[in-house]
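Hypothesis: this fold can be encoded by more than one sequence.
Test: take the structure tokens below, design a sequence, compare later.
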């Protein structure tokens, strides 16, 4: 936590991939300062903003990116460069502030210091299908609506409650390893569930949940 230097373990409460919003709950944390929320329904093009985050993932004092709102209700596609899958994010605030990978999850604030959006930016392995110096943020009203649904434990077609299921395996997707019976394992993550269960290289996963 910038300003205190303290680190915390956390649990995943839930997430919504289609809105790029997740909630984590810090363990044994108390007395932390909270932000002042603005109303993203009242923002406009030309309004001055500052993006706060962790540009480049270097940690330390939060980075700042100054700019203004250049458009509202924008859409972008975030593509996973490793497998070609993509997520479409809509209803975004567009800004000319230089929001960079690592800034995601940081605050987009107005001149009164109120949070009006949550920064979203491409990161290692992901790219945005956009052009030019463009930064994007999720309107805070939208982010909080999703957050409140997660906190209420209300799952939906897009909202997942709890952490992601994790096997800890690497799957060989080459044509030479193609197996009509299932997924061929090329490696396991040390201390992961699969390794603990004795799954190893060249084993084949034939079903899940059975």
């Amino acid at each position: 936590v910038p300003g205190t230097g303290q680190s915390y373990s956390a649990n995943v409460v839930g997430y919504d991939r289609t809105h790029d919003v997740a909630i984590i709950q810090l363990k044994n944390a108390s007395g932390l300062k909270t932000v002042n929320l603005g109303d993203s329904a009242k923002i406009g093009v030309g309004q001055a903003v500052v993006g706060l985050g962790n540009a480049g993932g270097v940690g330390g004092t939060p980075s700042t990116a100054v700019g203004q709102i250049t458009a509202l209700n924008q859409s972008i596609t975030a593509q996973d460069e490793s497998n070609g899958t993509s997520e479409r994010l809509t209803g975004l605030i567009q800004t000319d502030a230089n929001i960079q990978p690592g800034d995601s999850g940081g605050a987009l604030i107005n001149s009164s210091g109120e949070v009006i959006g949550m920064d979203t930016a491409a990161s290692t392995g992901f790219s945005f299908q956009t052009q030019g110096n463009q930064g994007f943020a999720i309107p805070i009203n939208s982010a909080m609506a999703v957050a409140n649904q997660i906190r209420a434990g209300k799952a939906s077609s897009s909202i997942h409650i709890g952490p992601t299921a994790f096997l800890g395996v690497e799957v060989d997707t080459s044509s030479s390893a193609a197996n009509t019976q299932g997924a061929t394992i090329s490696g396991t993550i040390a201390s992961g569930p699969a390794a603990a269960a004795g799954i190893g290289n060249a084993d084949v996963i034939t079903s899940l949940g059975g």
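The chain has a mean pLDDT of 87. Residues 64 and 119 are 12 Å apart (CA to CA).
Hypothesis status: open.
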